[in-house]
Amino acid sequence: MRDRIRLEVRGRGAGTGVNVDIAHLRDFIAVVDSGSLTRAAAQLYVSQPALSQRIAHLESGLGVRLLERGPRGVTPTAAGRALYRDAQQLVRQFDRIAGDVLSGDRIHGPVAVGLPTTVSVRLAPALFSWTKAHHPGIHLQLFESMSGYIQELLALGRLDLAVLYRDDDTVRPAETLLYSEDLFLIGQPKPPAADEDEIGLVDLQNTPLVVPGGRSNLRELIDRAFTAQGLVPSIVADVDSLGAMIRIAAGGEACTILPLSSVADQANHRELGVRRIRNPVISRSVAVCNAVEYYPARDAVAAVREGISVVTRQMSAAGEWPGIRLA
Question: Is 128 exposed, middle or buried (0-12, 13-18, 19+ CB in 10 A)?
Answer without folding.
Answer: middle
